[in-house]
Amino acid sequence: MLGKYVLQDIIGACLLLTGCLIGGLAVNELRCVPLAWVYSPSEGHLSQNTRGLNPSTPVSFAADEGIDRDEMQKLSLNHGALVVDARPEKQYELGHIPSAVSLPRNDFDKHYQALQSILQSHRDQPVIVYCGNFRCPDSQIVAVELQKLGYQHVRLFRAGWDDWQMAGLPEEKQ
Amino acid sequence: MNAEPRNRFQAWGYWAGRLVLGIVFIYAAILKIASPQEFADSIAAYQILPFTVIDLLALGLPLFELACGLLVLSGFFFRTGVVGIIGLLAVFVGASITAQLKGLSIDCGCFGAHSWLDSNPWMVLIRDGLLLGLAVFLYDRHIRKLPS
Questions:
Q1: In B, which residues are within 8 Å of A59 by CB distance?
Q2: ipTM of the complex as predicted
Q3: Residue A13 to residues A71, A162, B3, B51: CA-CA distances in angstroms?
Q4: Which chain B residues are Cβ-neighbours of A66 within 8 angstroms?
Q5: What is the pTM (predicted TM-score) of this model?
Q6: What pLDDT digit, counting tens, does each position of B61-76 carry?
Q7: A with B: how many residue pairs have Cβ under 8 Å apart?
């Protein structure tokens, strides 16, 4: 008999959820900057050309493809890898890891075209992508895009710019 | 332990549990309602759902959390609120485990983006597991009082 109550409660919760989803869409229309109906990453969009390469469910990027700060420092100093900054261009201009090139997620296609010759020359070498910190998704999104474009040795510096800066390591400004 | 102190302890536990569950969900909901784009980014980072449903969930789930939190706290349609919370927590735990298995180091977005409460994925799992246990306890205690 208790099952009857459980079923009633599940139906009630489902109805409430449906109402909230509809309510969420309605409230969204009242916002100054409403969200689009289909998700696009914050700080802009990947451009049309790149979007064609971007599946509706993104490719995963394994944790063992990450590197730590020490390794990042060695590779950066020895120029043993191409370092890619996936943060917005403005943040890159304010400060970035020495020798890093800017390939922001929010303007990927434009910057990719401009960097194509540099990137092509590193096709068989390590390419290390970073963004702000562990929590930002930008580095992962750019890394996945580069993998899909044929770069086989893409790795992530997940701790990112915050970690580099907090360690007091050298930085470059533009 | 005698029956009376035990009952009193359970009654205190019940009210404290309701308070904790309600406040946690209302607090989490308000943070997410304030910044839906950040919550959408957090959902996207799990790499589970297609882009077509992410914004719908980013807009609707915080309202659902708020509604469930208010129902649990007020006692109005209490069981519906607790079942909603159990469902949400089960989804959160499942998504966290999936992210861990995929090797993703991401912010769960449970308390808005970049919250210190979400910084450690194992702590997030433990916290959600404890809240799930608490919600099941509250629901079980409530439903046993109903006529069978």
A1: 47
A2: 0.87
A3: 50, 42, 34, 25
A4: 105
A5: 0.60
A6: 999 999 999 999 999 9
A7: 128
